[in-house]
Amino acid sequence: MTDVALASLEAFMSERRRRSIRFPHAIERQFEADTHAKRCKRLTIGLLVSVPLYNFFLLGDWLLVPDVIRLATWIHFAVVTPWMLLAAWIVSRSPDPFVRECIAASVPLLIILQIDLGFSVTTSASAAHYQYVVIPTLLYTNVSIHRLEFRFARAVSGAILVLHTALVLWASYISTAVAATIIVQILICAYITLVANYTMERDLRRAYLFSLRDRLRHAEADAASRRDPLTGLANRLRLEGELAKLWSLTELKASVVSVVMIDIDHFKRLNDRYGHGAGDLCLKRVAALLLAELDEIGDLAVRYGGEEFLLLLPGLDLVDAIRLAERIRRSIESAAIPNEGSGMRGVVTASFGIAASSTSDLSPVELIAAADQALYAAKSKGRNQVWPPPTTSLAAIPSNVIAFSQGAAVSFESKVDIK
User: Fold this and answer.
1) Mean pLDDT for back-to-back runs of 10 residues, the chain (419 residues)
2) What's the number of CA atoms in the CB half-sphere (13 Å) around residue 134?
3) Which of 101, 149, 201, 307 is an active site residue?
4) Is 307 designated active site?
């Protein structure tokens, strides 16, 4: 699922000039949700692979600055390597994205500190060549195995440049020409690798935007195929899917489900007298009234066909379903949608049939058929009423009109209050 609206995503993608490769908050949050696990896995593997590669560079310490090999070895195995392993473990636990990137950024910073510490204390004649290992560190940080996010890569590269430039200028045994050459080479390397880092991240994020847009378009098309275009309610296709889900859970635990069938009284006369535009408006208003009464997450309002509606109410027993239906009946009548004609009340009314059963006792088809029978009874008894009625006894209800199980049946010996 996603909280990003397709319209806002397409509006963002249509902007030709953007100063940052980062997204607006909602899209950035979705990007992190979709890529976080993969990013953590990539960093974890990269950190583990980096451990032997990093320690292989001790060969350069031994050849170029043998006088600090003990210090370099101690820092390698007592500080940096343990931290790389710990960082891999922390990242594998999927920390907050900012924490994840900070931990990742700490590794090249520790590596450069180890290099510069050895460079600052060595007296080896080959020390001028030792600091060229800074270049692989920049490659590692920006474009290779580790590859930080651009904002972190930029910060770490800046820190590496400032720190190493200061050390090169401080070292009295390096001539001005050699120092300038070193600084320029490292600066060029930092620039090239940062441009590459930016390009890769920009392309990754751009590809993600197109992927997300396709996903949202598909989801929107799928939702549209399951929604009635006139009323916005669910259609029969969506109903079938929800029923299949409810009854698939029967193997784990049977539950009570109520179904309310609703039919607008004398709808054909309304269409004939006022026109189909008025009929469409009536259907929309009734649909809005239905939605206003549904407050449970699992409840579903469906346009079942023509002027018929269906309410699917999982977890609601018969008494509560009758109360709900009576409230809706009163709301429709109180809406005073005009429907003048002989034998009518002058306003739109509706008839209701209710059935309830455990999912283990009746199939979806049988439950809907029982509700349909109850609706037929309501219409045959004069319309604009709920059947079974809100005030009745169980014995008064014909067994072929309402379905119930031992788990869903309720006592009608006392009257049902409609609040």
Assistant:
1) 79 74 90 94 94 92 90 94 96 95 95 90 82 88 90 94 88 80 91 95 93 90 84 91 85 81 91 88 92 82 93 91 93 89 76 92 92 94 90 49 41 40
2) 34
3) 307
4) yes
